[in-house]
Specification:
The protein is built from 20 helices and 2 strands. The chain is mainly α. Strands 1-2 form a two-stranded antiparallel sheet.
Length: 456
């Protein structure tokens, strides 16, 4: 079995959290920028960066940040600040990992250390690849024994077995992200993606296998891109979506192109590029025009509406929302893409809430967010937490401070089950806006629960 270097499971950086004291993440980020200017450094520190430090996602700051932190806290070394000292090697993990390596739920451990991911990630088969055709008339490639290691040797024969392994990995990534969020999945899913493109670039295969493998690689790039997006790695997400789009264009795959543009539109909206969001959504709608899926057209109209909302173009936003609702009500279809399993009535309501919030109409936004919570099945913890965070934001937006605090406390109670930097950032932003109201008992309780959640 090949050895793959993997990061250690992250744990909160409580020492940096203690250094922040009573300052909000935004206030502490401002103090970091001031300290940088004092010593002639330039760092783009913001509340998101502080959150990544305190969550343990950033285990070792770059040299510029290290110099700034040493200036702020004289005499403190990286270890004193809760970071990994330079020169300390990252651990080497063996896939599959020992059963007790991670204290995580069984389903995630099974996915990350065995089954499809282990096969595709390590690319070291223990025996001949048995390529079985799904149809009797499909030619079956000859059996081969690929060499061990992370990269298949040139000329490796790729068959249906490898295609099905990649397809299964994509499904597992989507399933686990729907339930828990992206943060713990991103790194290892990235290994799977790189290995899949190695199969595509180094292997030999029939025309039918090539077509399916290209589609699989593109869908996997989008899935890993979404994990990057949801865990706050927006630049990496943009690159991965571009990779998927290039694959779609080369393969002439309209469905994959629509999916890539769909996610690009969502990313552009979150990154504050609303015009790009509108253009990408419109390109997705054009690519999907002949696919025969009203539900896909509904989602793409919502992506366009999100861009118009950020541009404060109420008329265009409302028009797109109406088109989304009309298409959704046409019902599901046999042509609906498999990746759209997340798109239900709750998601429609949640995305609609985000549009009204971006337009500044918070009472309408709160009504739609409440619908999203009521419609979402309880076992989808990630999305329930997302909708609660949205509702708390919207309630605070129209002055319902107590309601926002109660909703925020409910969201905080679920944070331990959610690995999503994006959702945690939403809760963090609400907490920061709540601080001026800390004299209200419900707000005080929310802030205390949030403080305790950060420390866990």
């Amino acid at each position: 079995m090949a050895h793959v270097s993997l990061p250690s499971p992250t744990s909160p950086n409580l020492r940096m959290r203690e250094r922040r004291g009573d300052l909000s993440p935004r206030e502490f980020a401002a103090s970091v920028r001031r300290a940088a200017r004092e010593i002639g450094e330039h760092v783009s520190c913001d509340a998101r960066y502080i959150g990544r430090v305190e969550s343990g996602e950033i285990r070792r700051p770059n040299y510029a940040y290290e110099r700034v932190f040493r200036h702020m806290f004289p005499g403190a070394c990286l270890a004193d600040l809760g970071f990994t000292p330079r020169g300390e090697s990252r651990r080497t993990a063996v896939l599959p990992a020992p059963r007790d390596e991670e204290n995580d739920d069984v389903q995630r451990r099974t996915f990350l250390t065995g089954g499809p991911l282990a096969v595709v990630t390590a690319l070291s088969w223990d025996g001949p690849a048995r390529a079985e055709s799904p149809q009797a008339q499909e030619p079956v490639p000859q059996e081969v024994v690929p060499g061990s290691g992370a990269v298949p040797p040139p000329g490796t024969r790729v068959g249906w077995r490898e295609v099905h392994e990649v397809e299964s990995a994509v499904r597992q990534i989507r399933l686990l992200d729907d339930v828990h969020g992206a943060d713990t999945l991103f790194d290892r899913a990235g290994h799977t993606l790189r290995s899949t493109y190695q199969l595509l670039n180094c292997g030999t295969y029939t025309a039918r296998i090539e077509e399916r493998l290209q589609a699989c690689a593109g869908e996997l790039a989008i899935s890993v891109g979404w994990l990057a997006h949801d865990s706050g790695r927006l630049t990496e997400a943009r690159s991965l979506y571009a990779e998927a789009l290039a694959t779609a264009r080369m393969a002439g795959d309209a469905a994959l192109e629509a999916h890539a543009f769909c996610n690009t539109a969502f990313l552009a909206r979150d990154a504050g590029r609303p015009r790009e969001a509108v253009r990408a959504a419109q390109a997705a709608r054009s690519a999907a025009a002949g696919l025969g899926s009203p539900r896909l057209q509904s989602l793409l109209a919502l992506r366009e509406a999100g861009g118009w909302a950020l541009l404060r173009d109420r008329g265009s936003c409302v028009k797109a929302l109406g088109e989304a609702r009309t298409a959704f009500e046409q019902g599901s279809s046999a042509h609906d893409p498999e990746w759209m399993s997340f798109f239900n009535e709750a998601e429609l309501a949640g995305l609609t809430a985000q549009c009204w919030a971006a337009l500044g109409e918070f009472e309408s936004a709160a009504d739609w967010a409440e619908q999203a919570i009521a419609l979402q099945p309880t076992h989808f913890v990630r999305n329930r937490t997302l909708y609660m965070a949205e509702l708390a934001h919207d309630q605070l937006g129209h002055g319902a401070v107590v309601d926002a605090a109660v909703t925020g406390t409910s969201a905080v109670s679920l944070l331990s089950q959610v690995r999503s930097t994006r959702i945690r950032g939403m809760v963090s932003a609400t907490a920061e806006r709540m601080r001026p109201h800390r004299s209200v008992p419900e707000v005080s309780e929310f802030l205390e629960q949030y403080r305790m959640a950060l420390a866990c």
